[in-house]
Structures are given as C-alpha cells and as structure tokens.
Amino acid sequence: MVVLSSTALGLGHAAAQKGPGFDLPLDCNGDAPCLVQNLLDMDTGPGQRDPFCNRATFNNHKGTDIRLRNIADMQRWGNILAMADGVVKATRSNMNDRLWLTDADKHHFKDRECGNGLFIDHGKINGAGFTTQLCHMARNSISVRTGDSVKRGQRIGRMGLSGATQFPHIHVSVRKDGKVIDPVTGRLPGAICGSANRAKSLFSTEALDILQRSRFRHFVEDGFAGQTVNGKQVLQGGYQQPKTNRPLVYFAKFINLKKGDFIRLSITGPKGLYARSQTKPLTRRKSTFTAYVGKKRPPKSGIYQGQVDLVRNGKVFSSHKSKLENL
To answer: What residues contact residue 209 under an 8 Å CB cut-off, 6+ apart?
Structure first.
C-alpha cells in the first residue's frame, strides 16, 4: 500500500501550489482504503523509474493508478469523481468488465487498454491547459455525456474492470498543454527523479495530505481462510472461511516489493504457536505478492492471531496483526 508521507514522497512543505489543485478521483477521505499501485514512468527509454527514483511503475506507464484492495472494496467504494471543473470531451462505456488474468485475455482490449472511461478538458489555469483521462470504469456506469459540464467532486461513474486491468483501480492521466505530466510532482517525463517541491504538485493540498497518509507501505490486506490461497482468490474473495473442521490459514498481500524482501508469518492460538513460515528473499521486484502460513490439521476452537512482518535489509520494515475471534 502506498502511504506517501512527506519524507517518503520527497515533498517539502512549501506554500500551496498555484496549479489546478486536482482532487482525487475517489472519495479517499472517508473509509475507502485507497492505495497507489503505480506512478508515472519518468524514464523515456526502455527502462522504468517513478518520480521518486523507485520502481513503482512499469515501462511507458502514462498515469497514476489509484486502487482499492479487492473487488469487494470496489463494489462498496467505487464511485468515480471529477477531479476539477471541466467539460467532457469523450467517453466510452460499452466494454465488458473482466480481469486481465492471462496473455490470452489481451485480445479483449487490444487498442482499447483504457477500457471504459472519459476525457475531461479543465480549460486554462494560470495560462496552461489541463486535461484528465480516467480509465477502467464499469460498463454503462458513466453518468455524463460528451459536451456536459462537470463540477469538482461530481460523481461521474463507477470503478470497473474494463480494459487492461489486473486489479480494481482508476488510472488517471493528466496532461498539460497536451503533454502527459506527473500530477504528484508536476514534472514531465524525462525530468530528474527524486525529492520534489510540494508547491509544484498538481494536486490540491487536501489530496496531497490524503496521499501522504497513504505512503508506499506495501501492505494491502490480510485475513484468515479455511484453505491455501493465492492472489487471485484474495482479490476476488473466492476462498473458504475458516472453521474448526477445515485447515486454518493466515494470508497477507503486498504490492511493490523490492528484490531481497521477504515475508514472515505466524499464527498463535489457545495453546501458543500454531504455525510459522518465512518466504525466501525475492530475486526480483514484485508488483503484487501473496504469502500464507497454516496447517492442514483443523484447529481447536478459540481465539487466534495472525502476524505478518515485511523484512527489508535485515530489519522489520512493517508489521501487521489480525485476530480471529471465536473460531
């Protein structure tokens, strides 16, 4: 999960920016667990580099991906909002919602990777023209038409699974005078990565504060299941719930892990340690990673606690605990 603290983002606390002051396209100020999966690729060649010299991006990624944890979250908190006042210039809403799970799925969105979405012209702001493009919305969910005026924060549709999407998210491409620009730092692709001036950001102060409370901390979610699980099942909620006549498994999901990271998991119960496991250090970066620990032997009734630690450079980078009551 991305928690962008001012230190992690490299954003100073200068005076508020004079740009468009975009709001987020999701209501992340409420209960919605918004996560930032990918940022703009600032490397104009075959490599990949996000605006802060990390690799939370992929080659030629032209936007910012703000995701929810899973499909249940999308169904609950998936309203898409206009980021600023503007005029709708184009929409598409007829593509089916389906996850991109295999290479064979590519033909479903060939030349239409954005899926369902819209393009909004926000006009001139301090002499520069700004537009936003929002992608991966739900089929037939867009509530505005080409030529309509929209207001900041107006509900304009729902998050979906259309186009080239492997998880529920809204892809935002911001353009300044027709050129893609990173909305977090206000930098164009090819610019030097690293720390940035908060005043240059294209987001509003409130939106930046929300992103700062959501810095890349990598942890997405955890839980208990009555079977071994994989990332697809966690995303879709397709796993058995724990019971005393089933195995007990504790799982955790992460994003944007680095080479060398590893995960430690454990379950403790009424009689102490129930299960413990540790993954091997990653041999390469992982955009998503799911790990679990458990036993085939059904557990006794009682209270169980799961703990997961992300270990980086020999130290616990983050830790999380969850409790299973009254099994």
So the answer is: none
